[in-house]
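User: I'm curious whether this sequence folds into something compact or stays loose and floppy. Could you predict its structure so I can see for myself?
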Amino acid sequence: MKIQPKLQLLDNPAAFYMGSGLFLIGTIFVMSSFFVLGFVGTFLGDYFGVLMEAKVLTFPFNVMENPMYWGSTLIYLGWAIMNASPTGLVLTAWVAAVYKVAILFERPFTEEVYRQKEKNMKSK
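Assistant: Here's the prediction. I'll summarize afterward.
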């Protein structure tokens, strides 16, 4: 990243500190998501039938849906701003768009998985 061109507008201490703040907030969202879901919930979870007791609604999920996706996007954005990188900004926008598409497929799947789990629990 050091050899990439810099965006002069962002090549200043105020932008660096703003980027650092975004990086920190993103890290909090990602790490707290991981701690709430655990390794299995993060990496295996719904797709392999390893479900939580119920859909997680505590922090950071009570602040936003998909905090791991958006937290990592904030990390990328913060890093791009900290380095005044126009390439980093473009790549961050690309990552955000890909996450948005993934969410369009993942949300209905996750909702259906937990709907089925609740239905099965009631029928027992």
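Summary: The chain is about 70% helix and 0% strand. The mean pLDDT is 89.
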